[in-house]
Structures are given as C-alpha cells and as structure tokens.
Amino acid sequence: MIYVIVRFIGYDNNNLVTTWLGKDDNKPTGLTGSSGALVLFADFMNKVGVVNKMTNQPEAIAMTLFETATGHAVTDECDDTINYPAVSAGIVLQKGCLQDKVEERSWFERLFSE
Known about the structure:
Shape: elongated
Number of strands: 4
Helix content: 10-25%
Order of helices and strands: EEHEEH
Number of domains: 2
Distance between the termini: 74 Å
Number of helices: 2
Largest sheet: 2 strands, antiparallel
C-alpha cells in the first residue's frame, strides 16, 4: 500500500501549524510539500498574521570561542576558532592554543596604535 501524503509544519511566536494534504483512496495528489502543503500554510499564516519569533538570548548562554581542531573553549588569542553559543556556567577555558592568533594589523598600524 502506498500512501501519498503531502505535509508541511511551520511556526511563528504564537502558532504551530501542521498542514496535511492527501486523498482518502491514496491516489497521487500531483502535489509536493512546497507546491501543496506549504502554499496552504503560507495562506493561513498570511490570514492570521505572523508574529516574529522572539530571539532573546538567555542570560546563562554566552557566545564562546572554540578551537576548531580540538573543540576546546579558548580565548581570542587563539587562531582557527569558531564562535558558538554555550552555557556560560560550564565553560572552562583551555590554557594555551594549538596556534596563536597572527597579528592582522600592519607594522604601521601597530606602531601608531595603543
């Protein structure tokens, strides 16, 4: 038995919406998620009005630099890092780096700055 179901799930700050399109006899609808269920979802959201999702960062979360090669939390003195959110209470900064950050300013900029 082949079930032909077209679905899409989306949300905003106030609503979680699941759309489902299909035929009771399981025959093809000729629709896909983006040509059927998404269109229905978008039409509904346009009618009820979209409320942007709040993106307040919790106080316990801090953007933290991690060394890409090791995954250790490091200071901004290290090179080859990536910035990710992390639970600040559990962060232990690794002492030392695989590679120290290379000075990006020119000798002229370094001479005349702090």
